[in-house]
Queue: 2 jobs
Job 1
Amino acid sequence: MKISIVGTGYVGLVSGTCFADVGITVTCVDVNEKKINALKKGIIPIYEPGLETMVHNNIEKGRLLFTTSLKEAIEQSEVVFIAVGTPPDEDGSADLKYVLDVARQIGKHMDHYMVIVTKSTVPIGTAKKVKAAITDELEKRGVELDFDVASNPEFLKEGNAIQDFLKPDRIVVGTESEKAQKMMSRLYKPFLLNGHPIIFMDIPSAEMTKYAANAMLATKISFINDMANLCEIVGADISSVRDGIGSDSRIGNKFIYAGAGYGGSCFPKDVKAVIKTAADYGYKLRVLQAVEDVNDAQKHVLVSKIKEHFGSNLSQMTFALWGLSFKPKTDDMREAPALVIIDELIKMGASIKAYDPVAMDEAKRILGDKIFYGDDPYDVLIDADALVVITEWPEFRIPNFKVIDKLVKNKVIFDGRNIYDPNEMVENGFSYYSIGRKARH
Ligand code: NAD
């Protein structure tokens, strides 16, 4: 079986590599020539655990190919996935220009029956637009060709993307023809072993499922953060509350960790996009509006605690930041809480020294020389006034507190992810601020 994946980012590269790994010949297409040239040499543009080895293996076996020519890629493909970015437009809606550009390119070059699948996260109605764009191009060429569109939203999580793709909680596919459904069943068969389900539905429901899933996850985070803030006010501890509610099987304990707010390339933009879709249809998604408002405010909570301790004038002060990526095990800094925190601290006159296990290059690209970059977690503590933990990387979980004590000027830690035990902090002589738990001194 031969397929193409258009867009070689987090989703396109992981999906393409995993399909290649089960024996399918996959051609990955991207307009970014630098990226494609690097990939041809086995240089991976993103950090994703396990991906590099898998890419190398499949390149060697000749099953994973890279090109900038969509025409060449789709020549023998039975299925073409569109996995390009859908960034937020100015009004919050998903910008479909890349998706529709690919659709037009497909229409310009296709010469046999194919299933064209949107894997990008796209608003309800996009598959119809993709179909119309392809039909338009075929008509311009005076060519009559049978083809199908399908929607196959991707649920992988950065940092665990390969496992999520190989062992999915579910695969959702929206189709409108039996032929397309059969092809998608065949393609995903190797991933269904051990009871991983594939759920077929109509196309608008598949498109909606992705937004509903991300909206639900974002809601869980904003809910627990809102509760955490109330816990601090009333003198409760969000970690105990989480244990208490999480043991209820109707609630569950996953994805209800209080913190410095959600970021990343998906939740912020998808929440905005579904709010906008609802508004376009004259409906107000009140819960999601609140989810977004709570999250915007949550990114500032850690800085409020820093102000509470040191006051508003932070000139002459230096903060050591641990973690820059929006979550552990990724170098992705899109919409990362770290960016908001850094911006605010700098505005208040502070200097920043930061360390992240994998996001340093990405941080340099975004922030340039606005901050100082350390070589390891302890390096950034030298002459810093306090430690601020923003991303819960495993290597930050059991640090050497004696070394921290020696290096930082003030024995104070601001923990944006609740990774330390408040009692242990007090025993070690630190002032300790976390989220949804009262400050300890
Ligand atoms: P990305 O920005 O990492 O990659 C997109 C790629 O598409 C880029 O390499 C870009 O050069 C390429 N591209 C743009 N226009 C193109 C064109 N005309 N032809 C060929 N290539 C083109 O994006 P991503 O994070 O992989 O996300 C892709 C889609 O998947 C988005 O809709 C996103 O919401 C969705 N998604 C992302 C994740 C995630 O964790 N990143 C998870 C699930 C779904």
Job 2
Amino acid sequence: MKIQKPKLKQQLKAQRLIVKLFFILKLSLQFLRFKFYLDLMIKQEQFNKLNEKMLLCSQCILRETCRTVVPGEGLIEAEIMFIGEGPGQKEDELGRPFVGTAGKFLDEMLASINLKREDVYIANVVKCRPPGNRDPLPEEIEACWPWLREQIKIINPKLIVLLGKHALEKFLPGQKISQIHGKALRRYIPEIGTYVFYALYHPAAALYNGSMREVLISDFKKIPAVLKAAEKPIKIENVNTNIKLKENKQGILFNFNE
Ligand code: URA
């Protein structure tokens, strides 16, 4: 069959348009990939600089007795950031967070949800070991806050998991770990923005306490569901009715079990 000239012209035009669109799409994808790697490089550079400065910090008395500053470790594009209390003896020796017995327990719980420590970011509210593993003082936590604040801003995680009462008090002041563990809360914090927080018992506290250990393991297993819920746009109401927020403005609980 003979194709008419105007039809042939139309077909050629359509073909050219498809080639052009394909070319634009390819360029856009290349640009997005380039931007992704560029952003990552910038993030890494910011992070390296932050760590260098952190290692030289002497803003509080803890630096006088600790061996080394323990900035934190993990993936800088992590979706989940864990925040503990402060380095213990082993962490102080090795300069890495959660590498003692509590750390082994944390690794086991991460494995139970198919994650490794390299898939998340792990930090503490204080970066230097309090002498004799005492609790960090409020002024020490405050002195260390700029480091943690900058870590959060660079990593920008979708979910912040608070390990124990000191991390909880920093982000959700006035809450009790025994009441809020296993519940997720979206909260705006002026210096860092809006984040979803999920509080858990501290692994060191739960390690040798049978019932607390069970609760922690069970709460930990909900992390993937909490992360999924955290990714959704704000959908929120007080579904966990057994929790009363101290101030209305403190944050919004949301149901991650649906
Ligand atoms: N406990 C913490 O809170 N952080 C660590 O890094 C180790 C133990």
